[in-house]
Amino acid sequence: MKKRILESKFFSVISDGTTDSSITEDEIVYLRHAKDGQTYLEFVAVVGVVLADAKSITDAILSCLSDHLDISREDISRKMVGVGSDGASVMLGKNNGVATKLKAINPELQAVHCTAHRLELAYKDAMKKTTICSTVNTLLLNLYLYYKHSSKNRSALKQAAAAVEAPVAIPTRVGGTRWLPHIERALKNLLKGYRALIAHLHQIQVQPGYTTDARAKAKGYLRQLGRRNVLMSILFLLDVVSVLSKVSLVAQKKNSTLAEVAAAIEDAKTTLTKYRDRMSSPSMLEFDKYFGQIEIEENLTGDGNIDGGIRTLIDDLHTSLEGRFHDMSEGVLDAMRITSFHFWPEENDNAFGDDAVRVLGEQFKNTLERADVDAMKLGVEWDLLRARLYSKHSKKGQCWSEIIPGMKDHLPNICALLDLILAIPASSADAERGFSRLNLVKTNLRTALYDDRVTDQLIIMLHSHEINLFNPEPCISLWQSGGVRSRRPDRSSTPHREQPDSSSSDSEPEVMMEGDSE
Description:
The chain is α/β, with parallel strands linked by helices. The chain has helices at residues 2-7, 54-69, 73-79, 89-92, 98-103, 115-128, 131-148, 151-163, 180-192, 194-206, 212-224, 228-252, 258-278, 287-291, 307-324, 331-335, 354-363, 365-370, 378-392, 400-403, 412-422, 429-441, 451-463, 473-482; strands spanning 11-19, 25-35, 38-48, 80-85, 110-113.
């Protein structure tokens, strides 16, 4: 890992903070870099901070790079081109945030607000203004709480599912989660377990053993689940969240770039516009498939018209997406779109990318010069690269790790610029995954673990080979030879007693009596 990082010309830092089981403020640090079009994301360390302020976090990041990767302050100023984090003001504050302090080391550093977080915020902004969203979310939350702590309700739901020969799907939580795919799962669970849920709520009305409050709640949920407009809203929201979840999954990929996220957002906006124009979505057209064979169907109320809700939600989503991602359609971030073939014209446009290369060359001028990149040649080499890609490569399905190795000798400067762009992160999702692993290592029973021990264990968890590819012999040899004393018992100087001849059938085992000596 160290060798790969030291050989890379550029890198970015991804950092986020959490409070561990010992009630200690920890900062988790990742490093992203690219070489020959291949991006790498490396876990560096977990570092404790006394205060969760910008100065302490900045010092922790710099000391982490120095202590764990042997990267000097000079190399940091030469190679660090980006920093990614969530939207906390301590990280991205314009006046005194961590990104601002790191820009004092390299003024050309690009700060990135995690696109996965921004997408979640955009959805929540739109959801607050739409009645169908609030209605469905409240219903999902109430059903989740109704079954969460009641083993009786869970058991009865499973029995009801068996009675009607339907799959069991316990309602899951929709609120308090960070990633849109979790919301998608909650909606899918509701549709999957709808038939069993209706059967159980009916049973609560007639079977003894339930309190008046439980019956009243069940009756209210049953009434909501029997309204066509509510069911239509559930189907429509499933499609909307599924579209946005695709964007979220792109943002959360380890090697994802800002250009790929921008392309996914463009596709999502196009799809949502289609739903608005048609006042319908694919799942809504399958209403009978989901609910046509259920007994409650004959008692469904309402006409199922949610045109107003569809129009409001889609319009608000477009507004929220534009507001949350406005910086990705202007300046440096917009210029980075040249790394995504989604934005390349079908036919060779001799002017495509020229302005973008010029903007990027100006933004990272000093950083490129310190990496021995001739910025004056970027324009010419971009023209040659573009011409070769259109003439020799089918851009569909291509990736830079397949293209750059064959061109870096002839076009070294533009290939270096592409590596720089690829080194800038699109999200801080891996820091969130690191927190999950941290909680597995530093549990309530292991609160005394030092940061370096936690870091070592996380490196093993995150960077080890798959078990079927792992060769333990080098580790065993290192363990045996790495101690101050030999790991193996050394009996070479201990006299050995001669063993009796086992071939003699008359020999008897010698019995040592108390007081006898060897």
